[in-house]
Amino acid sequence: MNNHRTSSVETYQNFCTEDLRDSYVLDYLFTAGELQLTYTDLDRAIVGSAVPTDSALPLPAGDQLRADFFCQRRELGVINLGAAGTITVDGTSYPMANRECLYIGRGSQEVSFASDDASSPAQFYLLSYPAHADYPTTHAKIEDANKLELGSQADANERHLYQYIHENGIRSCQLVMGFTVLQNGSVWNTMPPHTHDRRSEVYCYFDIAEGHQVAHFMGEPQETRVLWMQEKHVALSPSWSIHCGAGTNSYAFVWGMGGENQRFDDMDGFPITELR
């Protein structure tokens, strides 16, 4: 497990591109045959990936947790961004098709990830936060998600949002998780932008066509910066930072949050004309 520290609101303004990316972008996940974990300083979120090929990949606790097993004091959300696979939790197997979700509750001891076909592996995206209560491990298919249709073609932000782990869906301690799909001809997400001081957020961009990128905007509203994101790059968004994006083509992204509450609409918006 890697340790990752982000910069402060006072220092990011002076960063060059390389320093900014080192602080807020994880671009090394989803390596075939490996399970990778990164422990961040954003509400103690752990971001990771598992791409099993010839054999199953067990989930280790890591020295950073000082725990007997990973979920001893944590909850974990997983969304499969690849081909079909299986997650096994304490002897129970959960088949996972593309874009399906599994919530793994606190107290789950043995977790492993496998692919149905090593030549076309599952690509599991992992997001974990500390947990202080037990909720049951729960699997959800796309049709189980709460689907919201947002935006419009006229504003180039028509998108479908799928809520999996939230206060009216899969129960959790603090983790909120789902994904958003931009419709053809639309490129903007989360516009107008917002912050939510009560929790941090993590974005994992996927289904970006070859030769295209997404410009992820971050920073204070009057001091914004841009991070260019490619397929399955992860953007870390502190509570003080806006987060929005525009792609050179349509795309999708997994969003996940942890912090003070689970209210999806608890946010502080900023007028587009005030952005700098």
Automatic annotation (TrEMBL):
Sequence positions that bind Zn(2+): H194, H196, E201, H243
Keywords: Isomerase, Metal-binding, Zinc
Keyword presence, Iron-sulfur: no
Annotated Pfam families: KduI
Top EC class of this enzyme: isomerase
UniProt signal peptide: none
E.C. no: 5.3.1.17
Record's catalysed reaction(s): 5-dehydro-4-deoxy-D-glucuronate = 3-deoxy-D-glycero-2,5-hexodiulosonate
Cofactor note: Binds 1 zinc ion per subunit.
SUPFAM superfamilies attached to this UniProt entry: RmlC-like cupins
Cofactor(s) recorded in Swiss-Prot or TrEMBL: Zn(2+)
Pathway noted in the entry: Glycan metabolism; pectin degradation; 2-dehydro-3-deoxy-D-gluconate from pectin: step 4/5
Role this protein plays: Catalyzes the isomerization of 5-dehydro-4-deoxy-D-glucuronate to 3-deoxy-D-glycero-2,5-hexodiulosonate.
PANTHER family, A to Z: 4-DEOXY-L-THREO-5-HEXOSULOSE-URONATE KETOL-ISOMERASE
Assigned protein family: Belongs to the KduI family.
Name of this protein: 4-deoxy-L-threo-5-hexosulose-uronate ketol-isomerase
Organism: Rubritalea halochordaticola
